[in-house]
């Protein structure tokens, strides 16, 4: 949190739900691309390759459907065949349900609006947005599945040290869930999470096994006002999820998160971190599927207790103005640095989906230091980037 299908996924902070931009040849749309689910190295490449890649992008439009399907997998894949792709899809659909249910319970009044869609080339997604609730100003929780074909140059850009590439285009599958939650109360923090899985189809001489695969994702917290107990609670849940699998995961992915969510032109961190990882395939595939599942299932216990505690905290206009300024920073990061969002904007993705991660309201005030609110809570932390590390 942090490149590509166009819909619900983001390597980082932005939600950008379901307008898949697509890599394509002059004659055929080929690669679904999600601004909120970036496969990082498709963007983070040399200027020459970036120019070449971006110039080959077009959009394959989604088609809205009237009801949520049982699965977005192709029938030829087997809807419940025990494969990693089918189990990952089932997991993100279940997480979407559980997170949305928990958020509606916290809000009390707001309900998620759901749009389901499919794509001609295979796959589809479900976007859910709650707006102007009692607790949440805007909350999006979205899933997406993409099938496509990568040109050889895109595959080489997407994966370092390619050794098994056969001539010609590379069929691929990608799925993910992405969410950004913006509460109304200035003392309740914004949350972003995103988990995704990518694989290329098996070579003909090894049917049944993906040629290449990797996981990506993360969960991060962006408060306007810092409550040390909340930050410690949030990070303790991330650490607990990581430690179940490898004690090196939490410090490794925490640093990755801190490094990614950095607003260079402000010399500021965007938020107080969490965990972030991408292109993860250096462990057993089953272990990493379980790890991604554990992290996704940790979202509710990490976040909901904080919102429950802060949602009714009294606040003044000064507190709200400070929240709006901090949201301005959030927007700056998403529009300037977030790889998924910037790719979607440059390649003609669906704007409503790309910008769904942004809050309804924000503020940029000239010389805003002149009206900084007085901190009743942890005044020594005002405006500072403090390292919170769980021991």
UniProtKB/TrEMBL annotation:
GO terms for molecular function: coproporphyrinogen oxidase activity. One of its GO terms (cellular component) is chloroplast stroma. Keywords: Chlorophyll biosynthesis, Chloroplast, Heme biosynthesis, Oxidoreductase, Plastid, Porphyrin biosynthesis, Transit peptide. GO terms for biological process: chlorophyll biosynthetic process; protoporphyrinogen IX biosynthetic process. It catalyses: coproporphyrinogen III + O2 + 2 H(+) = protoporphyrinogen IX + 2 CO2 + 2 H2O. Its EC number is 1.3.3.3. It comes from the Eukaryota. Pathway: Porphyrin-containing compound metabolism; protoporphyrin-IX biosynthesis; protoporphyrinogen-IX from coproporphyrinogen-III (O2 route): step 1/1. Homodimer. This is coproporphyrinogen oxidase. It comes from Gossypium raimondii.
